[in-house]
Amino acid sequence: MLTISNLHATVADKPILKGLSLQINAGEVHAIMGPNGAGKSTLGYTLGGRPGYEVTGGSVEFQPYAAHPEPVEGSGAAPGASTGSARAGGGYVDLLALEPHERAAAGLFLGFQYPVEIPGVSFVQFLRESLNAQRASRGQEPLSGGEFLKLAREQAALLKLDMDMLKRPVNVGFSGGEKKRAEMVQMGILDPKLAILDETDSGLDIDALRIVGEGINAVMRAPDKAVLLITHYQRLLDYVKPDFVHVLAGGRIVKTGGPELALELEERGYEAVAA
Predict the structure, then answer these.
(1) How many domains does the chain have?
(2) Could you tell me the maximum CA-CA distance found in the chain, to the nearest angstrom?
(3) Which residue range forms the structural domain that includes residue 78?
(4) CATH code of the domain in which 221 resides
C-alpha cells in the first residue's frame, strides 16, 4: 500500500529524514517509536504534504482508492526525489507529486499531535464538506444532509463523543481528549485507506486512551486498510496491537521488530535498544 524508499527531507534547510525506507502492506499496523528529534513527526508531515517540509531525495509510492486526482504539474518532489507522472505503475501513484488535498482524496489521513481550532466553522459542516469533496474526486455522489448526519452519529457514538459537540466550531473549547476523539470521528467519516496518527495518545487519560484505541481498531482494522502509529510510549499499543514496531533515530529506521520491541524499549530505553 505504501512504499517509502530512501526518503530525505529538510525543515528550514536542516536535514531531518536521512534515507528512511519503509514498506507498509494492506491489513498491517506499524508503529514508529523513537527519541525526541528523531524525525517521527517530520515523517508524518512529509507524507501528508505539510508546507515547510521539503523532500530532497527518495520516493514514496501509494496505492490509492480506485479513482484519485491527477497531480498538479510542478508539485511534489524536489530535484533528486521521485519525479515524473504521479502514476507509478501497478495501481500505485507518486505520493510526492500530489497536493495535500489530493493525498487526502487518494485515501491518506493524517492525525495531528495537536489538532487545530477553526473558529466560526461548525464541525458538522466542516466534515460534510470534506467528505463530499473527497467523494466528488472519486466520482461518487455526495451524501445528503440526512445521510451525512446518520453517518456522523454512528461515528460519534463509536468514540463516545456527544453529537452536540460536532455542532460547535471545530475543536474550539474542546479538551485535549475531546479533540483526539473528535479527530477519530473525522477519520471514521472520511474512511481512509491509510491513517498516519501522530502521537494520538498524547493528552489522553486512561478511559479516553481505551476509547480512542478501540475506535482506531473499529475504523482501520481491515484487510484493505493500514495504520502508521507515531508514538513515544507503549500504552497505546496495548489497545492497537502493531504487526511491526520500528525504531527511528537520526532520521532513519535503525531497528525493526514485533510488538515485543515496544516492550523492550519501554524497559531499557532507546539508547540501549537502538545501539
Answers:
(1) 1
(2) 55
(3) 2-274
(4) 3.40.50.300
The residues with which 110 forms a beta bridge, in sequence order, are 196
Q: What is the enclosing helix (H) or strand (E) of 87?
A: strand 87-89
More confidently predicted of 157 and 62: 62
Closest to 88 (Cα-Cα) out of 21, 3, 171:
3
Task: Report d(CA 82, CA 97) in Å as an integer.
Answer: 8
* Element containing residue 136 per DSSP (H, E): helix 123-137
- Are residues 47 and 108 in contact, defined by beta-carbon separation less than 8 angstroms? yes
Specify the amino acid at residue 175: S
Question: Looking at residues 118-123, what average pLDDT do you find?
Answer: 90
The listed range with the strongest mean pLDDT (22-26, 137-141, 163-167) is 22-26
Among 124, 120, 117, 219, smallest CA distance to 163 is for 124
For residue 104, the SS3 value is: helix
| Phi–psi pair at 147, nearest 5 degrees | -65, -40
